[in-house]
Structures are given as C-alpha cells and as structure tokens.
C-alpha cells in the first residue's frame, strides 16, 4: 500500500519484532516507510529477557516505540527461578514498558505443556501485580489457555490483554472475548484460505480488535514469504476493512483507539 504520510490514516502496529538481525542493515529506511504508511506507534514484543536491553535501545532510538517484557512459550529454556523478578525489574525501570509478553502456550511446535504453564502462570501474576496487559501467543492451545484464564477470572486474577496474531475460530474468539481480551489480526488475515480468521474479522466487536504485523514474520499478501515490516500493517488493516465492509479510515480509527486504550499509549505517541 503506497500512500503518502498526508493521506495515510493513523495506525498502531500492536506487535512487532524489529530487534531481529534482518533489520540491522536498513532499519532507518524501514522506519521511514512505517511513518509514510501512517504508523504512529509500535508495540515491540519480547521473547526472552536477553532481548530487553536491545529493545530498550530501540525505544531510545524511535520515540514512537513502546515495548513488552516476557518469555515466549517456545523459549521456556530461558525461564529460571529468578526470571519473574528480572521481568518485574525491567518493567518497573522503564515506563515505556506497556505489557508483559509475549507469553502463552504453543502446542503446534512443542508438547511441553507443563513447562509452558510453569512459565505462563508467574507472568500472568506479574501483569496483575503491575496492572499491565498481557500479549498472548496461543497456537493449537485454545482449550488449556481458556481453562487457565477462566480459573483466574473466577478468583479475580485475570489480566487484561490481547490474543496476538489471531488464528483461531469464531467459537474460540468468543471465549477470549468473554474474558475481556482483545483480538489482534496479522498478515494471516490476508491469506486466501484463512477462512476462520476472515470470519473472526467480520464478527469481532469494533471496540475489541487490533492490527499488527508480527514482523519479520507473516508478511501479508502479496508479500508472503518475504520479510515483513511495520509499514505493512496498513495492508492488514485494509484487508480487515474489506472483510468488515468498512473503510480503511474506520478500521484505523477503531484499532488505534483500541490499542491506545489497552496499552495506555501516551497522547504524544498517537
């Protein structure tokens, strides 16, 4: 989507990973493109604590960037007895930390559910203690994730948050919406065969969804298979708008307001 900065509606890329090496050579050009595409704010995810200093440096470099701290469910080897304390220290030290995550469950690429739950629980506790939202990765694991969050809700310990890179069914989405969570759509919503995701994009309430890139992964059609980048969140938003029978401006306005509310983004960012 080639649009001028004057014409582009304001957008938030609610989940990105520009700390990865494949952005080192041209990150300034990448930033120029996201600004031209109307991306006013980015939320940078974290997969394990060793990333935090580099992500913090990116926030120093790009004032529109906010970030999360956490341990990804496929990185449980980085979860140790002191990891929750490390994450808490990092979150308290920088008010640009707006979430805990990405955390969650992944039974598509791993089967160590007990280990994943052992890392998940303390991170959910930390989010509640710090009054921060969570960024949830959930792949082929809706049932155990819903079970964990529902029992937490019953005892008043379920944090607010977002189901990132949504890939589930409308029925699963309904369960997470009942828990007060937001649903975030990535480049997968542009894939022709992603019919359950298309259905979710049509059905999700206007005040409960976000858009993201999850870059450098999951580039939208027609860039599939190439490096993804924050500017392409405009293409995600355009596809969601098409599915919902709305304008890009309507989707941009809704998702920017939703991301601002969920992550408590400051006015000077968005």
Describe what this molecule looks like in 3D.
The chain has 270 residues and is α/β, with parallel strands linked by helices. Helices cover 40% and strands 16% of the residues. The chain contains nine helices and eight strands. The protein has an eight-stranded parallel β-sheet with strand order 1-2-3-4-5-6-7-8.
Which consecutive residue ranges, at least 5 long each, have pLDDT under 50? 1-5
Strand order of the largest sheet: 1-2-3-4-5-6-7-8
Taking the alpha carbons of the first and last residues, their distance comes to 21 Å
Beta-sheet strand percentage?
15-25%
Instruction: Give the overall silhouette.
Output: globular
The beta-strand count equals 8
Short description:
The chain has 270 residues and is α/β, with parallel strands linked by helices.
Keyword list:
single chain, 270 residues, alpha/beta, eight-stranded parallel beta sheet, 9 helices, 40% helix
Mind sketching the topology for me?
Elements: E1 11-16, H1 27-36, E2 39-44, H2 52-61, E3 65-69, H3 83-93, E4 97-106, H4 113-130, E5 134-139, H5 142-154, E6 161-163, H6 170-178, E7 182-185, H7 195-203, E8 209-211, H8 233-244, H9 248-263
Parallel strand pairs: 1-2, 2-3, 3-4, 4-5, 5-6, 6-7, 7-8
Helix pairs in contact: 3-4, 8-9
């Amino acid at each position: 989507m080639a649009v001028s900065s004057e014409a582009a509606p304001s957008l938030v890329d609610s989940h990105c990973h520009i700390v990865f090496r494949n952005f080192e050579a041209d990150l300034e050009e990448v930033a120029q493109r996201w600004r031209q595409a109307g991306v006013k704010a980015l939320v940078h995810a974290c997969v394990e604590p060793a990333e935090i200093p580099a992500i913090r440096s990116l926030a120093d470099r790009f004032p529109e960037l906010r970030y999360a701290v956490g341990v990804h469910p496929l990185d449980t080897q980085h979860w140790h007895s002191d990891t929750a304390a490390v994450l808490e220290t990092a979150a308290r030290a920088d008010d640009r930390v707006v979430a805990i995550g990405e955390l969650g469950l992944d039974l598509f690429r791993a089967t160590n559910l007990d280990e994943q739950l052992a890392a998940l629980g303390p991170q959910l506790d930390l989010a509640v203690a710090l009054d921060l939202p969570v960024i949830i990765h959930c792949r082929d694991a809706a049932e155990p994730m819903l079970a964990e969050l529902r029992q937490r809700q019953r005892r008043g310990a379920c944090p607010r948050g977002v189901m990132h890179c949504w890939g589930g069914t409308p029925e699963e989405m309904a369960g997470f919406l009942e828990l007060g969570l937001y649903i975030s759509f990535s480049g997968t919503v542009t894939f022709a065969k992603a019919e359950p995701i298309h259905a979710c994009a049509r059905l999700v309430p206007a005040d409960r969804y976000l858009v993201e890139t999850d870059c450098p992964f999951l580039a939208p059609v027609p860039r599939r298979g190439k490096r993804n980048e924050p500017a392409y969140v405009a293409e995600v938003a355009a596809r969601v708008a098409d599915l919902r029978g709305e304008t890009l401006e309507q989707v941009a306005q809704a998702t920017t307001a939703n991301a601002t509310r969920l992550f408590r983004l400051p006015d000077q960012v968005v």
